[in-house]
C-alpha cells in the first residue's frame, strides 16, 4: 500500500528537526499550568494499566506521565524522534509507528494520549485515526487530545526549529473534533480551551474522552 503523502512529509520534517525540537520544548511543561492540569487529570483517571502516548516526539510528555505513576510507552512516526526519546529517557520504551495503523492488539490500552500529534493529519482522515484509537483502547479507557484550535484551516509550514521543512498543520475545531470522537465511540468527559501563551498564535484545545463500554 502506498503511504499517504502527508505521512511521508511529516516523518521527514520531524526527522529533520528532532534534536532542536527536543531542546526548545524540553522545559515547556514547567511553565504550562493548563498542560499539567489536563495531564494530571488524565493520570488520576487512569491510575493503573497500560498507557500509550501516540506521536510522542522526544518523549517529554511520556516522561511526565511516568513521573505521575503511569505505566507509559511512546510511539512516533519519526525514527529520529524515537532515537532522541530513547537517549533522553532510557528507562522508558519508545517505538516507531503510525497512528493510522498501530501495532497494538485490540483493547490493549487503558489510556492513550495524542499531544499535538493529530495536527498534521488532514481533517478528512481523522475518523480513521479515531477509529484506530478506539480499537486499541479498552472499553472505559481514556483518550486525551491536545491541539491548536481553529476552523480546520490548513497551514503550510516551511521553516521550523531552525530548519527548512515542508508539511501541513491543521487548526482544528473542538466541536467538530468532539463530534468525530463521538462517532468513533467516545464520550466526552471534559474539555478546556485556553488563550495563546508565549510563542503560540491560536487558542489551545484539550479534549478528554472515554471509550464507551
TrEMBL record:
Residue runs in coiled coils: none
Query: Which InterPro entries does the record associate with it?
Result: Methyltransf_25 (IPR041698), Methyltransf_Superfamily (IPR050508), SAM-dependent_MTases_sf (IPR029063)
- Organism phylogeny: Bacteria, Bacillati, Actinomycetota, Actinomycetes, Pseudonocardiales
One GO term of the biological process aspect: methylation
Q: Which GO terms describe its molecular function?
A: methyltransferase activity
Gene3D superfamilies in the cross-refs? Vaccinia Virus protein VP39
Q: Which residues form the signal peptide?
A: none
Report the source organism: Amycolatopsis sacchari
Which residues are in the Methyltransferase domain? 51-141
Q: Does the keyword Transferase apply?
A: yes
Q: Can you name this protein? A: Methyltransferase domain-containing protein
**Pfam families given in the database record:** Methyltransf_25 (PF13649)
Which SUPFAM superfamilies would you find in this protein's record? S-adenosyl-L-methionine-dependent methyltransferases
Superkingdom of the source species: Bacteria
